[in-house]
């Protein structure tokens, strides 16, 4: 069996991954492989030493099949466009840095290779590490401002839509990255490898012996190298406070998101879901397959796989700031579209700073990664966009006129998740009764109100989702629970705190995309202002 959380040997068949081992050289010896960082559906990613620039880079090696190579070439074009559009824009520092690209040919097969600067873990890792107490709002505000700056750059300067904003695709930068890599290499064990047989490709069982000679893998076995992603330094925020705003480029996007990453999470939407699941266990997010970059999936359908079973919020809201582990109730109600009154154990949040004095300090620097699914605003590469939990209404309904504001919707979902460690929406299907799209729209309506008629019309799936009166076709009984009440009743936000947060989130969650705020309009919102002198003690509680 392959090592847990590593790629399958079957993907080393013709058209698949390139077999790589430590000390392999690329581009006429310029890049030397040091260790494996991670992998995804499209590629594997390796830490390499750039002998020309005398620094380390992250090398993404794409599968050799034509469709993957074509996607990689599109990604390179976009990366170059982003790099050259407006380098002085403040948002440019919050987008992945592209360094180099080249073809690598072995045994008549060619793999597209892309190099990026190495960076630290993604925001999903930060959520995991702080699940019990939650990420303090001041840090969430700092991260959110940087995401919005990056999107403002993509949208306004590059005319590009990311289409897959989620915690996995927001990477944390590491100050003094070369020193950190040196420390990691000196203290880490040697890379582990597992020699495994390559199973025959079911679609190519008739491949002749002559053809099989041209496979990416010279033999019918492969050495799977265990991933060793770069960890975040324990004094991460102190390093950033010394470096200040000049520490702007520790990035990489390397891989695109993986369609098979198992990252179960809780959600507000599932707490309001009609679906009844029978498992009484409380799932937690599975360990990240690779914690520094999030890997690419097929352009057609970005997903995050979630497990069967009730979400935590469905059963009870975790005491995010309670020191006792018993804050997770074991006697919680089963998953269902339940009323506000039936939700037990509300959460006591950290206070949200009301100070409105802006500051350039960021306790963690982040960059938007995974430009593999980005698309020009006026020429969409695909209509199947966004990972389920962060998908906008216009994408669910199948409208063709979506634009950069689909990213803004996703940002609002990410902000909620950073604050609560729970999904804002996590729809479920119930056999032949209703689909995930039906449940997704139902959860949105319960939280934000009904859609305007013009929004319901004109989508590929409008008739499937709505009846002739404009009501949901398959889910008739909804229990509204507005966002402001959710924050007060479930998370025990003070009225002023809930009002301030909702004043920020609701413009980004406008059901009609034409009325939704842009990233540029939200980047200077008062909710994002933080007085870091007041928040110094709070910062010490974050687990980096």
What is the gist of this entry?
The protein is of the alpha+beta class and 544 residues long. The chain contains 17 helices and 14 strands.
Characterise this structure.
- The protein has a domain at 121-173 and 233-539: Transferase(Phosphotransferase), domain 1 (Orthogonal Bundle), CATH 1.10.510.
- It has helices at residues 66-85, 123-129, 137-157, 177-187, 209-212, 236-243, 268-271, 312-315, 393-397, 405-420, 436-448, 453-456, 462-465, 483-490, 495-508, 519-522, 536-539, and strands at residues 25-26, 31-39, 43-50, 55-62, 98-106, 109-116, 160-161, 170-172, 193-197, 221-225, 266-267, 366-368, 375-376, 422-423.
- The two termini are 33 Å apart.
- Helix 3 runs antiparallel to helix 10 and helix 14 runs antiparallel to helix 15.
- Strands 1-2-3-4-6-5 form a six-stranded antiparallel beta sheet, with helices on one face. The chain has a two-stranded antiparallel sheet with strand order 7-13.
- 28% of the residues lie in helices and 12% in strands.
- It is α+β, with helices and mostly antiparallel strands and 544 residues long.
- It is globular, with a radius of gyration of 23 Å.
């Amino acid at each position: 069996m392959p090592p847990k959380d590593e790629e399958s040997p079957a993907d080393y068949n013709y058209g698949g991954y390139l077999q790589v081992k430590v000390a392999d050289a690329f581009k006429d010896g310029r890049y030397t492989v040091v260790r494996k960082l991670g992998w995804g559906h499209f590629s594997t990613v390796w830490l390499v030493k750039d002998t020309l620039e005398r620094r380390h880079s992250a090398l993404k090696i794409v599968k050799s099949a034509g469709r993957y190579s074509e996607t990689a070439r599109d990604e390179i074009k976009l990366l170059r466009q982003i790099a050259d559009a407006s380098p002085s824009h403040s948002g440019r520092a919050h987008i992945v840095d592209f360094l180099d690209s080249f073809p690598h040919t072995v045994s008549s097969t060619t793999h597209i290779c892309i190099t990026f600067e190495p960076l630290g873990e993604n925001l999903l890792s930060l959520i995991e590490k702080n699940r019990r107490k939650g990420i303090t709002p001041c840090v969430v505000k700092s991260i959110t401002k940087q995401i919005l700056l990056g999107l403002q750059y993509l949208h306004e300067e590059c005319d590009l839509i990311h289409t897959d904003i989620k915690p996995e695709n927001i990477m944390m930068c590491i100050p003094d990255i070369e020193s950190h890599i040196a420390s990691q290499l000196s203290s880490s064990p040697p890379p582990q490898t597992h020699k495994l047989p390559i199973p025959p490709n079911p679609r190519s069982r008739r491949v002749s012996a002559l053809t099989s000679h041209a496979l990416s893998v010279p033999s019918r076995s492969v050495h799977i190298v265990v991933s060793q992603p770069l960890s975040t330094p324990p004094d991460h925020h102190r390093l950033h406070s010394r470096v200040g705003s000049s520490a702007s480029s520790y990035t990489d996007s390397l891989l695109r998101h993986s369609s098979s990453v198992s990252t179960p999470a809780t959600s507000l939407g599932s707490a309001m879901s009609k679906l009844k699941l029978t498992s009484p266990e409380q799932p937690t997010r599975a360990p990240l397959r690779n914690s520094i970059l999030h890997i690419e999936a097929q352009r057609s359908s970005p997903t995050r796989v979630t497990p069967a079973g009730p979400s935590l919020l469905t059963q009870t809201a975790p005491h995010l700031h309670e020191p006792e582990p018993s804050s997770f109730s074991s006697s919680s109600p089963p998953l269902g579209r339940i009323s506000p009154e039936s939700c037990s154990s509300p959460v006591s949040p950290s206070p949200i700073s009301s100070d409105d004095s802006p500051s350039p300090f960021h306790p963690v620097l982040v960059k938007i990664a995974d430009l593999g699914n980005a698309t020009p605003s006026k020429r969409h590469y695909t209509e199947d966009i966004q990972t389920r939990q962060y998908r906008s209404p216009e994408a669910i309904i199948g409208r063709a006129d979506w634009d950069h504001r689909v990213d803004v919707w996703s940002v609002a979902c990410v902000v909620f998740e950073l604050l609560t460690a729970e999904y804002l929406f996590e729809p479920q299907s119930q056999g032949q009764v209703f689909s995930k799209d039906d449940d997704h729209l139902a959860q949105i309506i319960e939280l934000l109100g009904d859609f305007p008629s013009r929004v319901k019309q004109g989508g590929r799936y409008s008739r499937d989702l709505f009846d002739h009166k404009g009501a949901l076709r398959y889910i008739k009984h909804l229990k509204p629970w507005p966002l402001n009440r959710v924050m007060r009743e479930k998370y025990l936000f003070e009225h002023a705190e809930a009002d301030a947060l909702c004043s920020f989130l609701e413009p980004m969650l406008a059901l009609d995309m034409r009325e939704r705020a842009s990233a540029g309009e939200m980047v200077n919102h008062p909710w994002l202002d933080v007085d870091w002198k007041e928040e110094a003690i709070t910062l010490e509680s974050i687990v980096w």
